[in-house]
Structure formats: C-alpha cells, structure tokens
Amino acid sequence: MNKQHKRMRGACATILVVAVASLALAGSASAKLVEPFTKFQYCPWHNAEVQRCLYSVTNSGEVVLGSKKVPIVNPVLLQGGFGESNETTKFSKFFGATEGKPTLQPVSQPVPGGLAGIINCKEIKDFFLRISCEVTFENGVTGLNSTLELARPASEIKISESNLARKEGVALQLPIKVHLENPFLGSSCYVGSSSNPVIWNLTSGVTSPKEPNKPIEGSGGKLKFLEEGLILQLTENKLVDNNWSAPGATGCGGFLVELILDPIINSAAGLPASAGKNTAILKNTIEITTPFALEYIEEENP
Hints:
Layout: H1 3-21, E1 52-65, E2 68-71, E3 76-85, E4 92-95, E5 108-110, H2 127-138, E6 145-150, E7 158-159, H3 161-166, E8 172-181, E9 190-191, E10 198-202, E11 222-226, E12 231-241, E13 249-250, H4 258-269, E14 279-289, H5 291-300
Antiparallel strand pairs: 1-2, 1-3, 1-14, 3-4, 4-7, 5-6, 6-8, 7-8, 8-9, 8-10, 9-13, 11-12, 12-14
C-alpha cells in the first residue's frame, strides 16, 4: 500500500471518529424520544460507560456453513451501546439492549432445499425413525430455517470504530450459534453453543483465509449525517469473514434420536468444517448516535 492510500485511510478514520464525537451535544433527560431517534430506545444510554448507541440492520448477504449456503433474505438487527475504545486493542466494551429486547435479533432464514436437502429418510436405519421421517415429509413439513443467535452474553461482542473506518483488522467480533429449525429436528438442534461458539471476526477490509477459501473484501460504506448531524449513518456497509471454523450440529431430534440425526446432518452439511471452508457476508445499514444527542432530543420533546 503506498503512502497516499495510507493517508487517505487515515483521513477517513479521522473523519469518522471526529464525526461521531461531534454528535455529543449537551442536554438533560426530560421526556421522550421521537422519530427517527426511537430506534435507539433500547440502547443503555443512561449507563455512564456508554458513549455510542448502535442500531445496525443486516439487509442481505449470505452464510456458507460447511457445504450449505444460506442467503440472508430477512433483515437482522444488532442493537446496543458501546464505550470508549481501548488504546491497545482498539475494541470498545459492548453493552446489550435494555428492557429484555434482543441484542442480536433471532430472525429465521429459509435454507434452500429445506430439510430434504439435508436428510435422506432412506438412509436412516432405525425403522421407527425412518417412518417418522417419511411421515414428516409426506405431511409437507420439509421446510428448514436457520437462525443466528448470540452464543454468549452481549458483553463478549467486540466492536472497533477505527478498524471499521480504516478497513483493516476486526471491526466486529460476534460469538454466535446457528439454530436449525424444523419440527422433526426438535427445539435444540444447533451448530455451535455457549461452550463452543462460532466466532466471526468480521472486517470491512480484505480477509486472509486458509485454503480453499480465497480473500474477499468488505466495505466501510457511504457516510451520511442525519438530523443535523445527530445521527451518523453508514449505508452499503459490508462486513466479511471467511476464515472461521464451525463445529458439528448437536441436539437434533432430541434425546436419543440425536445419536442418529446428528451424524446424518453433519455428513450432509459437511460439518464440522475447519477454517477456510465457511463464509459470512453481512451487508448492513449502520446508524450511530450518542447519549448526549438522545438527552437533547428528550429535552426538546417534553
């Protein structure tokens, strides 16, 4: 990278940091938030450690898990707040959404091919299980959904504004698990868990994956200022990671049945899958404001 490009990236990073800092308007909490600030109502902005409020919507993208690709067709929300950046790690402490609202909204995404694309009933040796599988398919319950869920507390999310702006390093680290949803699979069929999560180290820059994956590039997005500079918005943001590993599925079908179904699903989906065989591409619209801006809006709307 030449010196001119480095200076340009450094300038972009400075603009982003200064722009966000400029949102800090003095005021005192009074009444209520109004549109378009109501989206930040579950940010823990009354916490003195919180310096920014985040509202990020993944509108599209895809997740490749082993040999299965799942497009993101239903928007997924990540919300909460974060504090000052650590000078050494460049990461900020993250705070989850308030009032029992999800920090990472669990939204189901349809898996192409459904359950039939993963399970072949004729391969199940157990007679009663095979009959149950065939009955399920005959009744049309073949749809399969995949839902991303946080595998660990929101405090274990890591975020870096400077890395996001500079298009280098990890912009967002998410510990997740993937819930495979179908009546036949029961309610506990997961890839990843609290004790063994899938870790996404998402970047707006270029990845350096193991083979057979090749480098892919994210995007910092287009910067806009809304509401007289009180909201910073990044459109066309893209965060990527294709160097993560995934464990095998567990808990599919419930007690005892999982001893049969887990191996079938893992074999069909190519799980567990080592780093270099999986991909996450998240295309987002990110909005950021500050507690001071929200206090100002409340004061202006008694």
